[in-house]
Amino acid sequence: MDSIVRRQTLGDLLRRSAARNPDKLAVVCGDTGWSYAEFHGIVDRLAAGLAARGITKGERLAILARNSHAFVALRFALARLGAVLVPINFMLKAEEVAYILRHAGARMLATDTGLAPLARGAAALVPAIEQLIWLPSEAPSERQGDMIDFAALASSTDELPAVALDGTDLAQIVYTSGTESLPKGAMLTHDAVISQYVSCVVDAEIASHDVALNALPLYHCAQLDVFFGPSIYVGGTNIITASPAPDNLLPLIAKFRITSFFAPPTVWISLLRSPLFDRTDLSSLRKGYYGASIMPVEVLRELKQRLPEVRLWNLYGQTEIAPLATMLGPDDQLRKPGSCGRAVLNVETRVVDDAMNDVPPGVVGEVVHRSPHLMLGYFHDDERTQAAFHGGWFHSGDLATIDAEGYITIVDRKKDMIKTGGENVASREVEEALYLIPEVSEVAVIGLPHPRWVEAVVAVIVVKPGCALTEAQVLSEVQSRLASFKTPKRIVFVEALPKNPSGKLLKRQLREMHAGLFTEA
C-alpha cells in the first residue's frame, strides 16, 4: 500500500486545514490577507515554481528575511517539496550568514528588500548560492529586479511534482549558537516538528478560535513552530508583523482583536512601559506567552494587575527539541515564580547528576530529555551529536533544580549561554572577538540582570601590564566583528579574574560581584 495514505507532513497539515476551513482567514500581513484555501493554493503554486527552478527533495533553501506572508508561504512550499528550510538570524553579519550558507550547503537564498544588501554580501562569499529569491514585505517594497520574484513563483502554472515524502524526512536545519564560536545545525524532521505541535496544542492551548499576533522573528523556532505552525495545524487566524515595537503591537492588538500573543519578557516590559498601553483597547487579549528567559516576579504581578483577563504561560526549551520542552501554566505563575514548569505532553524530562542519577529536590543537576520532538542530530557533526545524546538522553546543557512536585527551575547554563532580549549569545564567541584586541590580557563574558534586556552581555577585562584601554575603544573594536545583540552592553575593567585553585575561571562569582551593574540602567 502506498505510504501516502498514512502520511503526516507539514505540507499535509495545511492542506487538511484548508479542507476544513476554506473560507476562514489564515494569514494577514500588511495589506495582504489569505483565507486557508488561498494560502493552500499559493503554497502549491509556489512549490511548483520552485520545482521548475530545480529545487528538489533534500535541497536546502535558506531564508534571511523579516516576518511576512511570503516567509510563511515559502516555509510550507518547501515542506510540500520535501526541501529543507534553513532560517537565518537577520541580526548576523555577512560573514556569519555565509558560514551557515556554506555549512548547510544551500543553493538558494530568499531575502527581502531591507535585508538584500546583507544577503548579497553573504552570497558573494558562497559560490554555491546560485540565485537569490526576493520576498515581498509587510509594507510595500521595491522588487529587486535581478532576483527571482516571489509573485512569479507563486503564479506558476507548472504541475506540482509528486514527491516520495514521509514524516521521517528532514524538514529544517535550524542553526543555534552553542558554547563554540561556530553555530550548530539542528536537523529536525516533519515527525519531530509535528510531535512538538501536538504538545503546543495540548499544553499551550493553541486553538482554532485564536487570533494570534506573530511579531517575534520567524527565523526563530519559537515563533515559527510553537505558535505559527500549531495555529495553522488547528485552523487559527494569524496576524504577522515584522516589528515588535509597542507603537506597532498595541494598535494591532486593538485593530484585529488579538486573543493570543507571545513575546520574551523584554517585549512584555516594553508594552507595559509604553504611553499607549493605557490608551489602547486590549480587552480581546486572553492568552499571553513568554519564554527565552524568566519573567521578573514584579512584572508578572504588574501584568496580572493591568491585564487581569490574560492567562500567562512560560515556555522553556531549545532549538534541538523543536523547541518546546517544559511549560509553567497560568495557575502556577505566582505559585512557582521563576520556574519553567514541568515536561509537556510529548516530552520526558529529568534533572540528573554526572552519573545520570536523578538529583534530590533542591540539588543542582543537568536537564535532560527524551522526546519525539528531538532533532536527528547536528548537521555534519557526529562528534557533537554523540556528546549531546550521551547515555540515551538529550543533554540540554542547562543546570537546574527540581522540587518535590517536579517543577524545574533553571539556575545556570552549563554551556555558558547568555540569553539577551530573546537571543542566544555564546560567551566564548564574544570572548574570542575581545581577545583579538592586543591590549587584552584576560577576558570573561557574562550575562547580568538588566531591566530592559532581562540579561545583558557584559565583558570583564584584565588589561595587559603597561597598556591602556577604554570602554569606547573596546566597543569600537568588536562592533565590526559581532552582531549588535552579541556586542557587550558594558565593559568592566578589573585587576584579576577570580579562579579556583586549579585555575578554572569562576564566572558565577563574577556574576555575583557585578549583579547590580544595571540597577540604575
Distance between the termini: 65 Å
Oligomer: single chain
How many beta-strand segments?
26
Strand content: 25-35%
Largest sheet: spatial strand order: 2-1-11-10-12-13-14-15-16
Under CATH, the homologous superfamily of the domain at 417-513 reads ANL, C-terminal domain
CATH topology of the domain at 417-513: GMP Synthetase, Chain A, domain 3
CATH level-two architecture of the domain at 417-513: 2-Layer Sandwich
List the helices and strands and how they pair.
Elements (H helix, E strand, L loop, with lengths): L9 H11 L4 E5 L2 E4 H17 L7 E5 L4 H13 L2 E4 L6 H11 L3 E4 L4 H8 L7 E4 L13 E2 H4 L16 E7 L7 E6 H14 L7 E4 L6 H14 L2 E4 L5 H11 L3 E3 L2 H9 L13 E5 L5 H10 L4 E7 L6 E5 L13 E2 L4 E5 L12 E6 L6 E2 L3 H7 L5 E9 L5 E6 L3 E4 L2 E4 H9 L4 E11 L3 E10 L7 H9 L10 E4 L13 H7 L8
Parallel strand pairs: 1-11, 3-4, 3-5, 5-6, 6-7, 10-11, 10-12, 12-13, 13-14, 25-26
Antiparallel strand pairs: 1-2, 8-9, 9-19, 14-15, 15-16, 17-18, 18-20, 20-21, 22-23, 24-25
Structure notes:
The chain is of the alpha/beta class and about 525 residues long. It has a domain at about 415-515: ANL, C-terminal domain (GMP Synthetase, Chain A, domain 3), CATH 3.30.300. Helices cover about 30% and strands about 25% of the residues. The chain is built from 15 helices and 26 strands. The chain has a nine-stranded mixed sheet with strand order 2-1-11-10-12-13-14-15-16, sandwiched between helices. It has a five-stranded parallel sheet with strand order 4-3-5-6-7, with helices on both faces. Strands 17-18-20-21 form a four-stranded antiparallel sheet, with no helix packed on it. The longest helix has 17 residues, at about 35-50. The model has no long low-confidence stretch (mean pLDDT about 95).
